[in-house]
Design brief:
Blueprint lengths: L8 E2 L10 H13 L11 E5 L3 E10 L2 E9 L11 E9 L5 E6 H20 L6 E6 L3 H13 L2 E7 L3 H13 L4 E3 L10 E4 L18 E4 L12 H6 L1 E4 L2 H7 L1 H8 L8 E4 H6 L12 E4 L4 H20 L1
Parallel strand pairs: 1-6, 7-8, 7-10, 8-9, 10-11, 11-14, 12-13, 12-14
Antiparallel strand pairs: 2-3, 3-4, 4-5, 5-6
Helix pairs in contact: 1-2, 1-9, 2-3, 2-9
Length: 320
C-alpha cells in the first residue's frame, strides 16, 4: 500500500498476509448473503482497441461502497514480456463517491477469479477425501487456482496440462513446493480426475468431455466471449451447470452459448447460480450420476467485494 497518489494504492505484494483466496471467497459469500443479486448487475462494457486488444469497463455498487475496474486484455503482450491483463480498480465511498483506494487491476483479478472458483467448489467438490486435480494452463490464474483449491480442499495429486512445457513444469514444481505430488500430464488424463480447472486463453475445447467421470467437477474461467470456450458440447450436455449469473452467462459464456447455438442445450439447461449454492437453494456436491460444471465469466460485483475485503483488511492491519 502506498499513499503517494493521495489515496492508498494496492499492488500484488500488498495481499501478502492480508487476504488469501479463502478469505476472499468468504467476502464473496458475504455480499450474496447480504442480498446482492448478480442478475441485476450491469454488464461489462467492451471496446476493441487497435492491435487486437480489448478495453473493459466494469462498475458496481453495493452497501457502503462503489467501484470501477478499467481492464485491458492485450493478447500480444506476453510475447513482449508484458502481462496479458492490465488495468486499475478505483474503490469509492458509496454515499459520497469519494475515492478511497486504487488497486492494481491485474492483481485484483488474479485474486478475485480463483476466489470465485473456490466459493463454487466449497459447494460442488467432495470434501471427504483428497482429490486428483487436473489443471489446464500455467499462467497467473493457474497459480492462483492451485492455491485457492489448496485453501479449501485436500489434494492427492496435481497434473498440469500446459501449452508451454517449461511453464507446466514450473507450475508442477510450485505445487510440489506446496506439499502436493505434481507433474506435467496430458489432456486425456481428465478421465481420472476428480477436479478439472481450465484457466487458459483457448478458444476451442481443451479435452473430450466424454472422458469426464460422472462424479467429477469442472471449472472453466478462461473466457468471457460468446464464441470462445474451453469445454465442449459433450460435457455441457452431460453436466449439471452452475454460473455466477444466468444473465451474464447467456451474454458471454461461449462454453454454453456455442452448444445452445448447435441446438444441444437450451437456456434452461443451467442448473443454478453461485447465489443459489450459497443460499442453500441448490444442494450442490453432485449425485455421482453426472459431472458438474461451474462456468465463470467474471463480474463487477466480485471485483468490488474482494477490493472492499482487501481495503478493510489493510485498515485493520494498519490499526494494530
Amino acid at each position: 500500500m502506498s499513499p503517494s497518489a493521495g489515496i492508498p494504492q494496492f499492488s500484488a505484494a500488498g495481499t501478502a498476509g492480508l487476504l488469501g483466496p479463502a478469505a476472499a471467497a468468504d467476502a464473496l459469500a458475504g455480499v450474496l448473503r447480504a442480498g446482492l443479486d448478480p442478475e441485476t448487475c450491469p454488464p461489462r462494457s467492451s471496446l476493441p482497441v487497435a492491435g487486437g486488444g480489448e478495453l473493459l469497463l466494469m462498475p458496481a455498487a453495493a452497501g457502503a461502497y462503489a467501484g470501477v475496474k478499467i481492464a485491458g486484455v492485450a493478447p500480444r503482450n506476453p510475447a513482449l514480456g508484458l502481462p496479458r491483463i492490465t488495468g486499475s480498480y478505483l474503490l469509492l465511498d458509496g454515499p459520497t463517491l469519494r475515492p478511497l483506494a486504487l488497486f492494481d487491476g491485474a492483481a485484483l483479478t488474479a485474486l478475485r477469479t480463483p476466489a470465485v472458483s473456490a466459493l463454487a467448489l466449497r459447494h460442488l467438490a467432495p470434501a471427504g477425501r483428497p482429490l486428483r486435480l487436473l489443471l489446464f494452463g500455467s499462467g497467473p490464474q493457474a497459480y492462483g487456482h492451485l492455491e485457492a483449491v489448496l485453501a479449501i480442499r485436500r489434494l492427492a495429486e496435481v497434473v498440469v496440462v500446459a501449452r508451454d512445457p517449461a511453464g507446466g513444469e514450473r507450475l508442477a514444481a510450485h505445487a510440489r513446493e506446496l506439499g502436493v505430488p505434481a507433474r506435467p500430464g496430458a489432456a486425456a488424463e481428465v478421465a481420472d480426475a476428480d477436479l478439472v480447472i481450465c484457466c487458459t486463453t483457448a478458444r476451442e475445447p481443451l479435452f473430450d468431455g466424454r472422458l469426464i467421470g460422472p462424479g467429477a467437477t469442472v471449472v472453466a474461467v478462461g473466457s468471457h466471449e460468446p464464441d470462445a470456450r474451453e469445454v465442449d458440447t459433450a460435457l455441457v450436455r452431460r453436466a449439471a451447470v452452475y454460473v455466477e449469473s444466468r444473465a451474464a452467462a447467456l451474454r458471454e459464456a461461449g462454453d454454453l452459448l456455442v452448444p445452445e447455438a448447435e441446438g444441444a442445450i437450451g437456456p434452461g439447461h443451467i442448473s443454478g447460480t453461485l447465489a443459489d449454492l450459497v443460499a442453500g437453494r441448490m444442494p450442490g456436491g453432485g449425485t455421482g450420476s453426472s459431472p458438474q460444471l461451474f462456468k465463470s465469466v467474471g463480474m463487477a460485483w466480485e471485483d468490488l467485494a474482494v477490493a472492499v475485503a482487501w481495503f478493510e483488511a489493510a485498515g485493520r492491519n494498519s490499526a494494530t
